[in-house]
Give the backbone structure.
Amino acid sequence: MKKSKWIAGAILLMSVLGIGITAKLPGFMAEDVCAQSLQPRVVDEADVLTDQEESLLLEKLDEISERQQLDVVVATVRSLNGLSVQQRADDFYYYNGYGYGDFRDGILLLQCPQERDLWISTNGYGIDAFTDAGQEYIWNEILPDFRNDNYAKGYMRFAELCDDFISRARSGNRYDLGNMPAKKKSPLRFLWALVIGAAGSFTMGQSKKAKLKSVHRKYTADRYTPNGGLQLFVKEDRLIDRRVVTRRIQQPRPSGGGGGGSSTHMGSSGSMHGGSGRKY
């Protein structure tokens, strides 16, 4: 009985000593809980995605984040909990432990369907990679899908753009004012332009042809030639048609960013964030 009490006392003593030593270890702080993400890179609290859509999106974000060494995160929330959408996004990013490396590099797109709010929060190297002008470009690309309630497509497009923007920034030529992605031309628009141009040309040609048509077909001009041959007494030049061709000269694009950069603000955690938001 005494032996059992002695063993229990020893175990208790070792536990107390272990806690004390751990608490005094250099660099161990409560903040270190955030050294790794506590949540997956897709958190659909508002349930706007199907299980399949969420799974595919998570797979894509994990692949991009791990390859680029920068967290790309998507989150939906039921409410803002009395905060601004900016505060809600910054807190969600920081307190859920997102971000790579010492500077917690990453980007988060947060959606609150109840308020129809969206916010991009950037941190660490994400602030450099996603400039204000770059974020404006991203909003223009994804907002139409969100306004049509096509959230899965909007999030997938966001992921693709993030991958491109990070690669561009790491190459030393980040997207910024004067150096934005070239807009893709739709093949359908080209086809419509071709059809409209052909129709216009055909109509104009038929109109000119109708004005030049004689009343009766004649195979020789003898009837109109006077005796003694044709004599010309009046000679003059007349402009009967004019065609003006204009051609746009494409200006060369600058090879580097034209300024702009990223605006920042301080989050409630004391961490610096970049970002911007939109209603949809």
Notes: The radius of gyration is 35 Å.
